Amino acid sequence: MNPEEHRALRELLGTYALGQLTPAEVTRVRAHLDGCPECRAELAAIAPLAEPLRMVDPDRLGAELPAPPAWLEESILTAIDNEPRRRRPVGRWLVAAAAVVVIGAGGAALGYGLAPKPPEIPLEPVTVAVADPAVRSTADVVPHTWGMEIKLTATGFADGETYRVVVVTADGRTAPAGEFIGTGDREMHCNLNSSVLRPDATAFRVLDDRGRNVASGGL
Ligand SMILES: [Zn+2]
């Protein structure tokens, strides 16, 4: 047997026991195990330790500095104490296996840390005038490079009725900003998008199915 290959595969046994190897590596390890009683014995010794390590949930290790939980360290130390003659190999594979777990957790934490924060949205509050006293509504508009968004919060638009929203431009045109269905007493939060740029908009209107103006916001 090639001693280099034996050593390399032996170092993979911990990761193998954790089920963290690639399919190609699994094939190599299994082929080696078939012909190597020494590695089979090593695997039999470390397999019971793989179970608690597998139960480590990287998501629960904390977002700051991922570290294996205390109970894991205790169970590892107990296992090492119980097998004094295996101290070195067990220690080595556990370091490798724990690194897999901790690197996994660290990767996750890093992923969260580097995820782009949603940009602060510059909300512009708008006073909404309503024609129907049942309607209560507030709105904010958001200037975008592609147009203007209207974030409408309201109750009292007739349940099940379809409403259309338009933006009125400075030169008197109206541009569509989308539609919504009234939710009656339940509060609705509706984002409506229009292609009108914020500086070009002077108002938005909410129209019922007959085109009557039921609410409007001056911009
Ligand atoms: Zn071997």
TrEMBL record:
The chain crosses the membrane at residues 93-115. GO terms for molecular function: sigma factor antagonist activity. It is a single-pass membrane protein. InterPro entries: Anti-sigma-K/W_factor (IPR051474), Anti_sigma_zinc_sf (IPR041916), Znf_put (IPR027383). Residues 8-40 form the Putative zinc-finger domain. It is found in: Membrane. This is Putative zinc-finger domain-containing protein. One of its GO terms (cellular component) is membrane. Keywords: Membrane, Transcription, Transcription regulation, Transmembrane, Transmembrane helix. GO terms for biological process: regulation of translation.
